[in-house]
Automatic annotation (TrEMBL):
CHAD domain span: 1-286
Protein name per its UniProtKB record: CHAD domain-containing protein
Source species, domain of life: Bacteria
Gene3D superfamilies noted in UniProt: CHAD domain
Length: 286
């Protein structure tokens, strides 16, 4: 019998290796490196939450807090990187428009400056004692995480199956609540659904070696829901940022017409993604 503890050690080792392998790429500012390290950090945090009952509470909570700190640093850089690329892509359709340089400076250049500043903060953290301690701790967890041996000795199939059912129920309860929430709170609830779908996805991926195709299929469906709602969230936040920059431009006496066109495009993009949400959610529970 494969025990839940052994299966969890295997899953954690894979995620830890992803995180540590991304570090030199981030230091070199390689393309997509911040994204990869952020994903690895988030994936590891998610697995710790889903399978936390197999771990000793205090060290698991401490590890989760340190990973949250690291994810926050990486997130500031990644969010600026995404916005810069998104704004640049939007502006490619308006290359001949008057005033493009000023709009590019406010939208794209500002975000690229923010990325560079945030990346510098990441590098400083990677050189600091706090990250070194985290890295050393993670290295130890590759083979010897703080398991609760009474629970870790149980069947991996039973324990992992229960985790997936619990995480699926969490997503389903949020989806049901979304149908009744008022419009003012809908965007945030959709964001919570996305986060829960992501947690389910990572729990499923951690369980693939234990449960097999059923976990893989469920994880794939959860990823689709996560992607749809993530794209919706990106469009909503981009729309809000453009409107904010439009107000700055207007206050400076600049023409805000192009900002309005870009904001309308992002509003339409958010609507398209939202229209895909009901069917994608229904598929997850099928």
């Amino acid at each position: 019998m494969v025990t839940a503890g052994n299966a969890l050690v295997d899953a954690l080792r894979e995620d830890i290796d992803r995180l540590l392998a991304a570090e030199p790429e981030v230091r070199a500012d390689a393309p997509d490196s911040v994204h990869q390290m952020r994903v690895a950090t988030r994936r590891l945090r998610s697995v710790l939450r889903s399978y936390g009952r197999l771990l000793t509470k205090k060290p698991a909570a401490a590890m989760g807090a340190e990973l949250k700190w690291l994810a926050g640093l990486l997130g500031a850089a990644r969010d600026a990187e995404v916005r810069a690329d998104r704004f640049a892509e939007l502006l490619t359709e308006h290359a001949e428009r008057a005033g493009l340089d000023a709009v590019t400076e406010r939208l794209v250049d500002t975000e690229r400056d923010r990325y560079r500043a945030a990346h510098d903060e990441v590098l400083a953290a990677l050189d600091g004692a706090r990250y070194r301690e985290l890295r050393d701790e993670l290295s130890g967890w590759r083979t010897d995480p703080p398991l609760r041996h009474s629970r870790a000795a149980a069947s991996a199939t039973d324990v992992f199956g229960e985790v997936l059912r619990r995480d699926l129920d969490r997503v389903q309860s949020l989806v049901r609540a979304e149908a009744t929430v008022d419009p003012l709170h809908r965007v945030e609830l959709l964001h919570d659904i996305r986060k829960s779908a992501k947690r389910l996805r990572y729990a499923c991926e951690a369980a693939e070696q234990v449960i097999g195709d059923e976990a893989a299929e469920r994880g794939s469906r959860a990823k689709k829901l996560q992607t749809v709602l993530g794209d919706h969230r990106d469009a909503v936040e981009s729309h809000e940022a453009i409107l904010h920059r439009a107000a700055e431009a207007a206050a400076a006496g600049e023409d805000a017409g192009l900002y309005e066109i870009l904001a309308a495009a992002e509003d339409a993009a958010a609507g398209r993604e939202l229209s895909r949400y009901p069917a994608t959610a229904a598929t997850l529970f099928g």
